[in-house]
Specification:
- By secondary structure, the chain is of the alpha+beta class.
- It contains 25 helices and 16 strands.
- Strand 10 and strand 11 form a beta hairpin.
- Helix 16 runs parallel beside helix 18.
- The longest helix is centred in the C-terminal third of the chain and has 37 residues.
- It binds zinc ion.
- The site of zinc ion (ZN) has 9 residues, from loops.
């Protein structure tokens, strides 16, 4: 058995889906609220027989791999890796380079894990670190939850410890734990010295780096591991591995500025909180956030830098079609707010947010807009934000609101916005993201008709009423149904389709059963199949006519007379068929 089938055999679909959704038995299948769209009554059907979980409302799902890819937002290789690990199936990686890289990364991970263990141990034994934690009012549960550590006040304790554990000099450097001051200098210094250490995990929960806060007099308050094979600052968000679980229901992630803010929010029960570490928010960060959240709630420092960061976050999120809202707190940051009134912070984070643009309009409204220069400055702030809105409806909504704030007409403001947009030859954001339709995979009439033949194998003689499809899934399935031994029930096993189509066949079967197509009396089934054959033929012939007429035109333009004549004959045949079919 190959790896994929082995994993499939070991992990029943209902077991996997059950880890994410509450399943309810319904006949031979299970149903549940679909986790992929805003579902109000259970739309996700889970069929243990077919090994399929599929939502016909939003057309998402499939076998265990497709379901896992959709719910964890990973690609197939990653899904294969994760599910292999979960089921204990050993994957064979055949390329020697991949094996080498894998080995190298595994070594670096082990090196980080050992350093993490060392830092945690040091935290317990250092009086200085304990005093610092007390001063910052970091509760011991938080230290446990976030597995904080302490890097000792020494130039090479960590380095020496890792060497003793068998890690090489180059591994320690590549793991981002050492600093080589000069390229030719032999000596390696510890990157983290006399610092409280925050382990940083990627969204899958693998340890990739550390962030360190000095507890002494160091000029650099915060430092991070350097980027390396495992870590890239612009791709990782602190605490995302925990926050993504907490955001599953609400689809909201709170974005704060620092490690202590994350701890503070967590302390008051807001587990859906993340922070950037060692860099400003990037486009890749937003793409990552978008996998888990529809709304990003900004809870940034209440100063000029925080305000700029909020604007940047809004522009990046708007580009990806992610909603942005803001909470305002009276204190400098969430950490301070937690210390002064935890209950208030909890409430603010839970439901005190307002859409970012509402907040901006409120701020603008609070200034004196009487003079023209004041209006000019306010517009300079507002227009890029309005321009970034992904849909015309939202723009119109805020143009109307802003016109009231500026005590002007909507038309005048719309004109300014239009002028601004045209001035920006390279617009800050594209509007595509939010309006692009979801790429659906609805079944064609042809496919549905073939699905009916799967449900009523005895009616296969009617297959001759169907014009054979020429390519793709339909052609494959048509061939398989035609080839299936007569008088035998058509099962997935007896059906000779290419393995790559099996999942789609199963979804098609499930679709037909789901819609009750399998419960017809024979006379009704005959009528329905005939009707569907007719519809499928009609669609196919229309398509064929279109295709042929454009090819005839092409041949004509290129002066290929022979081709043109041949195509025209084909066209007439199709036309004759079409007339017969009507
Ligand atoms: Zn759905």
């Amino acid at each position: 058995m190959d790896e994929v089938s082995e994993i499939r055999a070991r992990l029943p679909i209902e077991e996997l889906v059950g880890q994410y959704c509450q399943l309810k038995k319904k006949g031979r299948t299970f149903v549940t609220l679909c986790p992929f769209h805003n579902d109000t009554h259970p739309s996700l059907t889970v069929s243990p027989d077919k090994g399929i979980a599929y939502c016909f409302a939003c057309r998402t799902g499939g076998d265990i791999f497709s379901f896992y890819q959709a719910i964890e937002k990973v690609d197939f290789p990653q899904a294969l890796k994760d599910l292999a690990e979960r089921t204990g199936v050993e994957l064979q990686d055949r390329s020697p380079k991949a094996t080498l890289e894998k080995d190298e990364k595994a070594r670096l991970r082990a090196c980080l894990t050992e350093a993490h263990r060392f830092f945690q141990e040091q935290l317990h034994s250092s009086q200085q670190a304990q005093d610092y934690l007390k001063k910052r009012q970091i509760a011991s549960e938080l230290i446990e939850t976030f597995t904080l550590g302490y890097a000792p006040d020494s130039f090479s304790d960590t380095y020496q410890h890792l060497l003793k554990q068998g890690f090489s000099r180059s591994e320690i450097l590549a793991a981002g734990l050492g600093v080589q001051k000069e390229i030719r200098e032999e000596r390696i210094y510890d990157r983290f010295r006399n610092r409280l250490v925050f382990p940083i995990f990627d969204q899958r929960g693998d340890l990739v780096a550390f962030g360190g806060r000095t507890i002494g007099e160091d000029d650099a308050k915060y430092i991070n591991s350097s980027d390396g094979p495992l870590y890239s600052k612009s791709l990782v968000l602190f605490n995302l591995q925990r926050a993504k679980e907490a955001a599953r229901e609400s689809k909201r992630l709170i974005l704060v500025e620092g490690y202590f803010d994350v701890l503070a929010c967590h302390r008051v029960g807001a587990a859906n909180v993340v922070a950037v570490s060692g860099t400003a928010l990037t486009e890749q960060h937003v793409k990552l956030l978008k996998r888990y959240a529809e709304t990003v709630v900004l809870c940034l420092d209440q100063d000029r830098a925080g305000r700029d960061a909020a604007e940047r976050a809004f522009l990046l999120c708007a580009k990806e079609g992610v909603q942005v809202s803001c909470v305002t707190i009276e204190e400098k940051d969430p950490d301070e707010a937690m210390k002064s009134d935890p209950e208030k912070l909890r409430k603010t984070l839970e439901s005190g947010d307002v859409p970012y643009l509402d907040l901006v309009l409120r701020e603008i409204g609070a200034t004196d807009l009487a003079s023209a220069p004041a209006k000019h400055d306010a517009l300079r702030r507002l227009l890029p934000l309005l321009d970034a809105l992904p849909t015309a409806v939202e723009r119109q909504h805020y143009v109307a609101r802003a016109a009231a704030v500026f005590a002007t007409t909507e038309a005048a403001l719309a004109q300014d916005l239009d002028y601004f947009t045209r001035q920006n030859i390279a617009p800050v954001v594209s509007r595509e993201a939010a309006v692009r339709p979801k790429n659906g995979d609805v079944f064609t009439s042809m496919e549905l008709t073939l699905g009916l033949f799967l449900l009523y194998p005895k009616l296969r003689p009617l297959l001759k009423e169907l014009i054979p499809p020429e390519e793709g899934f339909a052609a494959e399935l048509y061939g398989a149904i035609k080839e299936a031994p007569e008088d035998a029930a058509v099962t997935m096993e007896s059906l000779a389709v290419d393995p790559k189509w099996k999942e789609r066949v199963a979804i098609l079967q499930l679709y037909c059963e789901h819609h009750g197509f399998g419960e017809w009396a024979e006379t009704l089934a005959v009528r329905e199949i005939r009707k569907n054959c007719f519809q499928a033929n009609k669609e196919m012939l229309t398509l064929k006519q279109k295709e042929l007429s454009s090819r005839i035109l092409e041949a004509h333009r290129a002066g290929k007379t022979l081709d043109e004549a041949q195509l025209t004959t084909q066209y007439q045949q199709v036309l004759k068929l079409a007339r017969m079919a009507m």
